[in-house]
UniProtKB/TrEMBL annotation:
Transmembrane segments: none annotated. It comes from the Bacteria. Residues 31-174 form the AAA+ ATPase domain. PANTHER family: MAGNESIUM-CHELATASE SUBUNIT CHLI, MAGNESIUM-CHELATASE SUBUNIT CHLI-2, CHLOROPLASTIC. GO terms for molecular function: ATP binding; ATP hydrolysis activity. InterPro entries: AAA+_ATPase, ATPase_dyneun-rel_AAA, CHLI-like, ChlI/MoxR_AAA_lid, P-loop_NTPase. This is AAA domain-containing protein.
Length: 312
């Protein structure tokens, strides 16, 4: 696991509001289902992942290299020892190391299919099972899955894409002042990391306390029948497969309300959650590329956007 002494503070990241909010929501509800961050290189994707763990002392980031072998990921069973001694001997892999922490996969779209399958199994069951020559071993493996990718290098398999609760797009800042601030803060951090981190510690502490309060509030939130009905209607309107999207939408809206210090979900929570939960689950027409943008989602939701105001 990585040390945190030289980690760029999360509170110092400029812009990228949707990405930062998606990461924070996964700390409010650690069973939310992870986040996929798509975007061009050099947009603070990896920096943000390392920084989010820095907010919570009990969390670490476990990196899953894109060229990792299956044994390194799932762990290995010593078959000779099992035959000779009559007992199982298991060498833990990255899925064991990531239990209770963040599992981070950069360039997740380039991951080998066998590794993708192992991730899917562990993400679905919360358990990693290794089987070799009739011997099997299982251990708990619940983690916050964070993937980053550049869509120009290829898309992610739909099966893994659907496992992410949230998906957000990041782009470089487009106004001069914001880009200047990015440069200014980065140079200051590289010149004196300790002093830079001290400067942002009050904001880091405020975020940490806000997350802890939100985790307590989340336990008190009960979605109304009207919001459940609206959520189901959104899933049907956007023609997503299965029911996972509906469940993720409601869980995300609940985490969002808690993060805002409320125990009641409001219309804006539902709409904002839909923007992060739905686009990567919507079917694309032949030859259609990329993800649906927010404007397209709003157009498709149409009258449902006004209905959620009355439902909340």
């Amino acid at each position: 696991m990585e040390g945190k002494a030289d980690v760029y503070p999360f509170a110092a990241i400029v812009g990228q509001d949707l990405m930062r909010k998606g990461l924070l929501l996964n700390l409010v509800n650690r069973k939310l289902g992870g986040i996929l961050i798509r975007g061009e290189k050099g947009t603070a994707k990896s920096t943000a992942v390392r920084a989010i763990a820095d907010l919570m002392p009990e969390l670490s980031v476990v990196n899953l290299p894109v060229h990792a072998t299956e044994d390194r990921v799932v762990g290995t069973l010593d078959i000779e020892h099992a035959i000779r001694e009559g007992e199982k001997k298991f060498e833990p892999g990255l899925l064991a190391k990531a239990h209770g922490h963040i599992l981070y996969v950069d360039e997740i779209n380039l991951l080998d299919d066998a590794i993708v399958d192992a991730l899917l199994d562990a993400a679905a069951m919360g358990v990693n099972t290794v089987e070799r020559e009739g011997v099997s071993y299982s251990h708990p493996s619940r983690f916050i899955l964070i993937g980053t990718m550049n869509p120009e290098e290829g898309e992610l398999r739909p099966q893994l894409l659907d496992r992410f609760a949230l998906s957000v797009e990041v782009n470089g800042e487009r106004d001069v002042e914001s880009r200047m601030e990015v440069i200014r803060r980065r140079l200051a951090f590289e010149a004196d990391p300790d002093e830079f981190r001290r400067r942002y510690e009050p904001q880091q502490l405020e975020l940490r306390e806000r997350i802890e309060r939100a985790r307590q509030l989340l336990e008190q939130i009960k979605p109304s029948e009207e919001l459940l009905k609206w959520t189901a209607a959104v899933g049907i309107r956007l023609k997503v497969d299965g029911h996972r999207a509906d469940i993720m939408l409601m869980k995300t809206a609940m985490a969002m309300a808690a993060f805002q210090g409320r125990t009641q979900i409001v219309a804006d929570d539902m709409v904002e959650a839909a923007m992060m939960v739905m686009p990567h689950r919507m079917r694309k027409r032949p030859f259609e590329e990329g993800a649906y943008d927010h404007e397209t989602i709003r157009e498709l939701l149409g009258d449902l956007l006004s209905e959620v105001t009355h439902a909340s």
